[in-house]
Amino acid sequence: MQSSVSSALPLSYGISLLVQLCPLPYHVFNSDNHYVEKFDSNDPDKRNVLKTDFSLRVKLLNQIRAQKVALICDESPVIFAGVQCLDGITVLIGPVVMTKVDQNFAKLYSLKHQADTVPLLYCDPGRLCAAVLLIYTELYGRHFSVNDLLDANFISPEVLQLTQQRLADVFSSISLEERPHNPVTLELNIRRAIRSGDEAALKTALNSPYSAMRGTLADTELRSAQNLAIVDITIYTREAIDCGLSVEELYILADAYIQQIEECRFPAECAALARSCALKCTQLVAAAHKRQLHPDETSASGAAIVNRALDYIDRHLYEKTDISSMAARLKVSSGYLAHIFRRSMGMTISAFARRRKMELAVQLLIGSDKSLQEIAQMLGFSSQSHFGQVFMRATGETPGQYRARRQH
Questions:
Q1: Could you tell me which residues come within 8 angstroms of residue 314 by beta carbon, excluding any fewer than 6 positions away?
Q2: Does 86 share its domain with 100?
């Protein structure tokens, strides 16, 4: 991708491809701040703040030229990004918004810049950074990460100073109220209990007097309780992952609990959900320990392959189990994979996959209103009848009977 004025076509071609990948308003300017080309939805000039407010255009272009590549958040949540190309050409992307805004905000922003109502598209800042970094890297051959560009704008010296001040405020508050945070041993005891799959030890840790000595993570009691519970759930599920459990299964578990916490109306509900998650993680680890019938017979490399196989199964529960594809992905032979899996887990890959499908089926039957046909299709069964037969063998009930019994 070149950027000289005499060879603007390659730059135009590159941006035209970016427009397809990331449809945003792209603008190209000369060194005298005048347009070379505009790539947007062909909105009239009156709806383009870079046309109606020349001083804004100059300000943005000067910032980009000074930094070579920039994310500009001076009018947050409205953001721009740009890259200084060679021979005075500057590419500017925007305006977009990094959070959804209503029509009134768009009108006020447009009025500020003497424009008719501007269509402010939503765009994640990381995606916007990625678009300009594609151009920057091609031109300069330098690697600049998306996070570096984000941090340069969102972690300013002012933000760090405010954070340092808040640190002092929190410390002073804790000291005056004589309410230190709970000791680290509380967290360590919970994590040890999860790691060992010991429910009794977990309950002892959760009932510690220190469990009530929590920090404050928000201005309101409910939001603080929600934030604390989310932190706890993150710790508990990561501990289970470190024990070798399926990453995908634990991520889904964490997502479900966190979404439920966001629906809580009372702080006590948040804490109870966090404890429930800790118990669930402990039970999952305990079940995994029981499945490993002959742990001493499986080498460290074999155990790693089995763990990767478990994760593969969870990521492909919505498909028919294909051992050949799994083995190819794990770069081992199908025979070796089947051998070490059965030796480690005490069952075949197909049997384990069926069991995981049934566990998910139970959750879908209880927690959703999806039809039996939809559930069967989601789990990769050839028919509703086949799904019902497998479910019956696993639970002793048909899916319909199981759902009806749990609903009454």
A1: 246, 247, 248, 249, 356
A2: yes
In a domain, 273, yes or no: yes
Express each pLDDT in 37-51 by its tens digit: 766 556 678 889 999
Q: Which two tokens stand for residue 203?
A: 């309950």
Answer for the pair 313, 380: CB distance below 8 angstroms, yes or no. Answer: no
Asked if residue 162 is part of any domain, the answer here is no
Residue 6 clears pLDDT 90, i.e. is over it: no
CA distance 311 to 306: 9
Burial of 80 by CB count in 10 Å (0-12 exposed, 13-18 middle, 19+ buried)? buried
> Which residue, of 267, 291, 315, is where some domain finishes?
291
Q: Which amino acid is at 11?
A: L
Q: Is the pTM of this model over 0.70?
A: no
Q: Are residues 201 and 111 in the same domain?
A: no
Are 60 and 67 in contact by the 8 Å Cβ rule? The answer is no
* Residue closest to 239 by CA, chosen among 294, 201, 277: 277
What CATH number does the domain containing 313 carry?
A: 1.10.10.60
153 within 8 A of 67, measured Cβ to Cβ: no
Q: 107: which residues sit within 8 A by CB, 6+ positions away?
A: 117
Task: Provide the b/e sequence for 63-72 (b: ≥16 CB within 10 Å).
Answer: bbeeeebbbb
Residues 6 or more apart from 363 whose CB is under 8 A from it?
none
Residues 111-120: tens digit of each pLDDT:
999 998 888 9
94: closest CA among 118, 66, 69? 118
34/146 same-domain check: yes
